[in-house]
Fold each of these.
Amino acid sequence: MFEVDEKFHLHTLFRGGFRLLTLLDLENSHLKKFPVEVVNLYYLKYLSLRKTKVRIIPRFIGKLHNLETLDLKHSQVTELPVEILKLQRLRHLLLYRIEFISHEPFNSKSGFRIMANIGVLQSLQKLSFIELNQGGSNMVKDLGNLTQLRRLGILKLRREDGKDLCSSIEKMNSLRALSIVSIEEDEIIDLQHLSTPPVLLQRLYLRGRLEMLPHWIPSLHSLVKLSLKWSKLKDDPLVYLQYIPNLVQLVLCQAFAGHRLCFKAGGFKKLKILGLEEFDKLKCIQVEPGAMALLEDLSIRRCEFLEKVPSGIEHLAKLKLLEFFDMPAELFNTLRPDMKDSEYWRVSHIPEVYSIYWRDGEWKVYPLESLIDGENCPLPSTAKKTDELHTRWK
């Protein structure tokens, strides 16, 4: 359905049949209620109500025995009927929303309450995001029956459920993507009990307090993307992460409480995208020659005590894009070519350098060229689209 008028009703479309329909994509349509006509589509395999205003999934969805994909992302649904458990061929169950304005708060994601016996859906390959806070230990253990999972998203994890979750994850040998968010910002995510992590894991996203970096993360040879947010680690995580062999993208938000980050020579050999956000005490970033040799994209956000560009950034020969989001104006002003002790020489090789601020409900983008032209910083350019910046940061 593309740009369908709000007055359009599905029953006019289905009046003549479509009984053999296998795919129905209603994304972004003006639907407010689940279309009852769908109950007659016995052969339906794919149903998307993404970005609609549908709030309730009726019990008759249990009649769609051939359904393999149910996409409810960014809809208004928060709970699923128990009849979902009748859909034994269901492979992809996606239900979550993300609230994102200028930055992503801790509780920006919401999903759906986990139901008892979800382990009967043994064909599931994608499941996100389930809320575990009301599930209890038995439901966490039940996840271990979903051995075909390739993607798992978990919200509101409690510390006491960490051991059972580790036991369940060890049975998911096909897992490629894992996202875990604790129930509160300061709640510990306890994953130290995972002795044999999924060897095929490519994407790992952890949001919540970590007493220490899980010992198994550096051994993930297939890991491509890693995000650690609100970890508040006491020890520098770069020491343990720098030798993950195939890591391409790394995002760290409030991950470390120290004053200095150092990227050592020979570390992060395949890293292309690096994001650093909200390091409350960070005053210095150092890049040694030979570190992050393939880095192309560097974003630094909301590090209020960082007043200079990373020392050694001039060694990053492949760097194409450098962005500072809501950073002190003093940092960007150090790049003025006409200023005494200017640091412009450190970034002169980078094709795109921007200072970006959230103002009046939109991103204002100030290019480095405004300083080169002799203008006072900052001079706004044409604002970049918000979704473009979101996608880049994601």
Amino acid sequence: MPEMSGLRRASLAAAAVGATTTIASAAGSLAAAAYFARRVLTPERNRPDDVEILDVPPGRVVLSATAETVVPGRYGLWLDGGRGHARLGDLVDTDVAEDTVEREVLGVDAGELRPGGARFDGYYYAGTPDTALGLRSEHVHVDGELGPMPAWLVPAEGGTGSRWAVLVHGRGAQRQETLRALPVLHAAGWTSLVPTYRNDEDVPAGPDGRYNLGLSEWRDIEAAVEHAVRCGAEEVLLVGWSMGGAIVLQFLDRSPWAVVVSRVVLDGPVIDWGDVLAHHARLHRVPRGVGSLSRSMMGRRWGKRLVGVHESVDVARTDWVRRADELTHPVLLIHSADDEFVPVGPSRQLAQHRPDLVTYEEWRVARHCKEWNTEPERWERLVRDFVTEDVAGNVAEDVAQSPSGDASGE
């Protein structure tokens, strides 16, 4: 019957079109998921200007209003593509009609403050510990699995001493992110070591040239801790910002050198990369299925080539809310409820699960890893009290029993 055969041909054609559409849709989702994963894991070398300097009256600067520039506190301003730097104080005026803000200028470290493009930053300080803070420091190298990694060493008064802090900056950040913490640690008698890790600028890259969300970077911090112990450290404090917090947590979980760590300070840390990636997928309107597929691809052997990673990035292994019972070190956890980059939820949950180990301090107003900027006195008081508490226990005995030679960590 012609009608039936025609209907059958139409159905077959529709089925073929439907199958092609489904295949194309699946391929598109796979490609989109791979692209999203690569964006997350790829270091960003280009840091474009994000604010406009409109006027420079005496002792002041007028900037375009942005989500960053309208927040109270102390901040930095990179000038001339990063070659210059100024330190800014609090808000003086906000002009809603003109969409501008006026802030104090507390100092110009390099370059000239003049109208034009600039980049707002939360480091506040620029340079090295000696140039920015007047703290005697040494430029050393830590022998890591990828080769020598530059580090700053800020000895305690009277020598390096036996108490060392290892400070770990965040994803895409520079060591200058840690400068804000050095004065309070130095005053409390700690020697500070500020290492670099793979895929930082001007240091050896990992085998794939991509971030592994702490799942490989922890080995570079392991090398830094081993360096500290070989230089006389008997007690180690770890301090991590953002992804630096995720790196610290992986180190504590996977390195035999974790026995020498007495306590940990985390600022705006990634407690669960799955939560962070889901947050950014929503922000960028990535379909939920694509975001979920992206996270799955990172951790699957079949997805390594598509994502471009040498080692699988198992996001589930970074979920410290789920793994809360595995924590063994006292933690001072600082996080802002208004953190736009790393949502505060997992930090709150971790603190609720482990009140025996986690001292949780929540900020308001501050954006990502800018708690010090909005309330420096509070931040320094909390850190000073925490790092001077007697929580070391039997760390000295643990140092004596710590690994020697090659600390492979696995």
Amino acid sequence: MPSQTLEYPKQPYTSYSLETIHHIINTSPVLHVSFNAPDSPFPTILPMIGQMGSYSRPSADTGDVLDLYLHGYVSSQIMNLARGNWGKDGDGAESNEEPGLPLSVAATHVDGLVLSLTPNSHSYNYRSAVVFGRAVPVTDAAEKLWAMELITNGVVHDRWRHTRVPPTPAEMQSTAVLRVAVAAGSAKIRTGMPGGESRADAGDPALAARVWTGVVPLHLVAEEPLPGPGNGVAQVPAYLRDYMADFNNHAKKTALEAATTPMKPNPSAK
């Protein structure tokens, strides 16, 4: 079964591609962020956490044009490079182009193991997205606080207001947030059962009787919370219970639907 590719649309924007790409990124626990470091011959890749959002339009949803906010330690290499590239090109010279550190950001979900008659036809059911843009440090205190809340609630829904907030000045100084203006991106998705076997294999009843084929659905599961040594709350809070139930139900439903839903043809796929 072929995969489907969605390109980040040019203006005028179409919400279908935007929503799909943004949702894959926002539901990924880890984002892999790639950039070029001047002291290395190889691209650097970092696991980071982040969320798509719009500080100027807080009510915007995943079908709208959004920025990507990334969270990290203030003195990390990527934060230092982003500060150094603010208003400059990759060589540190003044640039007339859009400012910021060029980044590539990837997110992937695996929804199932696709087991075919032959090894060459094995695959995954998956959802992946890549976006490209330029990152600049968030220097406005209100936007930085908003972005930290956005990212925190992206990890566990409604977690921010159930913690000791706001962060102290020292905590704010030790944390940096990057805002990535997305210039381009794409999503690639595969759903459905095995496919692509040769006509001879597909028509061989002895082979079909010997080799099991199908999909093993895969998804993350939130298990029973384990209290920390300093925890003083007797019961797991309702907001956390609700988050776990929603997370597990959605993850299972997505994996099962990926296995049973054939991939729809996409005339614009490349």
